[in-house]
């Protein structure tokens, strides 16, 4: 069950916090821009606009850019000129040449106010154009252009101040060569063309510059609370007034110190400090509005920083910091702590890097947004232990840069007990009830606002089905149980059954979801393996064992954990047989499944083999070696691989034979035959005349087959050759005469050469 805690706290504070995000995108200078969408401002480099001073831009409530202007033209969010958005009647060198206000009557329409510049002798006065964002598929179009409001000359100062009712707005300008402020009220009924006139302060006239009207240059700004107004008169001084944002009237003129070129003005977020820039003096001033009397406030002015180029416009950002335009710079300066006095305000000239874009002396002339109180709330779910608990903070109002921090009340979790962001999660260290606190703060707040509530983390069931893998013998069931559980617990097995136990009869994965009364579920699982009896054999039922040899009996490959018990009680995986008998083994698998096998072993005698005694003799004729009488089915293998029952030895050497009986039993014997140095005779004459006497070339005392013979005639031509002589050469086909022979024994290497006479 989901439990949601929603708490909303409104912050009561003197700080003015700007809730909307319509000022999130600033476009200015030479194609420069800044985005305040994240925690840190970053450069925007897609602007199509190049302007010296006049600029304004506006975004929707989510912070998405809508359009921007230099008071002459207006560009849509795609950085293309808006339809009918040219020649709006302003001037790009007017200090505050443009201001944008959302229509109180139609949130899709915006008023774009513009004023003329000194370069055009301020002739254009105050004009407005109406932009309808429903046009051009949401890109907007100017539907009413350059409507004249004040036909007389007004200075380059133009600002918008929220009415005290939080809905309407005051459009303020200052008449040229006059001390009159003109305040036009914009309501749901449109713009009131008759202004509220306040004749107070100095007369804005004269000044240097190319047109001798430079005192029309400079900024006019209201404090965040809307109760103060300040102006900068370029060749004059800064001026401070009280402003009644209910009536639109100014009063209580306080002239401030002049620092050579009075240009930009801006109030600190808490309204206690006023900042001004000394244009080509490249410096930044601060006035302490809490110094006391008007004279003390005027005397409090001090320089708190120096800019890298001309010090131009000042503009309060959505993050509570004040940004400073620096002429021809790739950086916008920043006052990081504008509520602090003196150098503690921490001005940095390298505030925001504009990339390859360049700042001029103007910044977007954004209106001061109505004060909206900061609100905070969060939701959370009741969760089960071990599950990350999600939290979701909702922050309303404020400046849109609020920082949310959390304390989950779970000190045991260590550094994980705290978090930042709007949607953290936390895994609690134990079941129980915890007090969770959300703290929200923004720049300038004295203390954060906090929201606290309790979160319950429910325990989860403990489930144990036993070992993760359970083996049982075939035909034996296993009963799985989730263990003892409290009242109100429910069970759901893998097949949908809901009993507290489950009987498994086949192999498979089994699980149960156990849910306690708090709705927390734990799953337990186990794998059941039904094991068949072992499959084993010791070989043929009758096996023969040769005398003097051994036979190794094995039950075959068995699963891990199998045990063995042989007929003699031994427990090895194999058994070595040496005598006749009956042998058996019982194999038992881990679950207790058993099987038995046996075999009969019969011992048989080895073959009797005797090649005779070693001997030395003349090998004029081969020596026939025999293995003796052997039973049918025996096989033979001599030393040279031959397989006959006998072997003829023609030369000296070691002769051996293996005899294998029909039962596979093997015996071996060998005999050494040594050739004696016997007398021999090689004839030197033969008479092949067919009288049967001395007919052929006969080797006497030598085994002719062991010799190769080559015969040559008297001219050296070969007439006969054989590798194994047979005492048969008779010079057949050749004439009588002397022949030369060469005899060679390939085994012994012996060589004889000589001649023989053939006479018929």
TrEMBL record:
Domain PKD, residue spans? 372-462
**Entry's transmembrane regions:** none
User: What's one Pfam family here?
Assistant: CHU_C
According to UniProt, the name of this protein is: Gliding motility-associated C-terminal domain-containing protein
CDD domains cross-referenced by the UniProt entry = PKD
| InterPro entries for this protein | Ig-like_fold, PKD/Chitinase_dom, PKD_dom, PKD_dom_sf
